[in-house]
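All the exercises in this workshop are built on plain-text protein records. A record pairs a protein's sequence with a compact description of its fold. Read left to right, the backbone structure tokens trace the chain's path through space. Once this layout is familiar, the rest of the handout is easier to follow. Here is such a record, shown just as it appears in the course material:
>
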Amino acid sequence: MCRVLEVSVSGYYASRHRPVSQHQREDAKLAAQIQSLFVQHRRVYGSPRIHAALKAEGVRCGRKRVVRLMQQLGLCAKPRRRFKPKTTQSDPTAHVAPNVLGRDVTAPCPNAKWVTDVTAIATAEGWLYLAVILDLFSRIVVGWAMAPNENEHLVTLALHMALTRRHPQPGLLHHSDRGSEYSSQGYQALLAAQGIEVSMSPTANCYDNAAMESFFDTLKSECVNCTHFATQEQARVTIFEYLECFYNPIRLHSTLRYVSPLVYEQAFTPSLR
């Protein structure tokens, strides 16, 4: 072996007795921290978020070093499935609003722009529908509801939660698709009573609600697709725990410079005073 590698025999035996280098010791310590963070964050973080999480804990290291150590440890984020937009079932007789939001998914402050949509979760007991409302300022989930049916009652429950939590001032922009549940008289009346401006995406143009679609893609990749739900109750508990215990308070968001939605809003609050 020494002859093939062009290494002296004495050098080979000397290396066997040489103590571990400082760099190797630091790598081992950093690898343990990386593995702990990876497990702590549900095995959904890739190297950018792991690097950001290390930085938040005061650990200084290069991004490439994190990539190398994660590769050595065999750690990789859960892969995302290819995105497939949802087809909206609109009511041709309902009153629809113009697309005020456009594709401007930025907001200057909390409660300036909300986006909402519904997605379906597969369980052994049938479909479970999840309605979610996001605040575009911080991408925080301000309201959500789950039910076996996709209808006006489902989205109204999510809106009531958002209103109770946030108490928005009149002038808030509410953007959705033209689904029959959002264009229903009851839902529109509730928005009007709160002084909320309505915006709707045109039919077959789901990319105007890209932030909402991106959120559902994240939810399904990190929470739903990796679990077979035997019951709807199991799905409810799992999704509740993901939204309230991980996504809002903990999950680092790339759009927010790798802080969680809750931390991003808390950092903004002092500037309001």
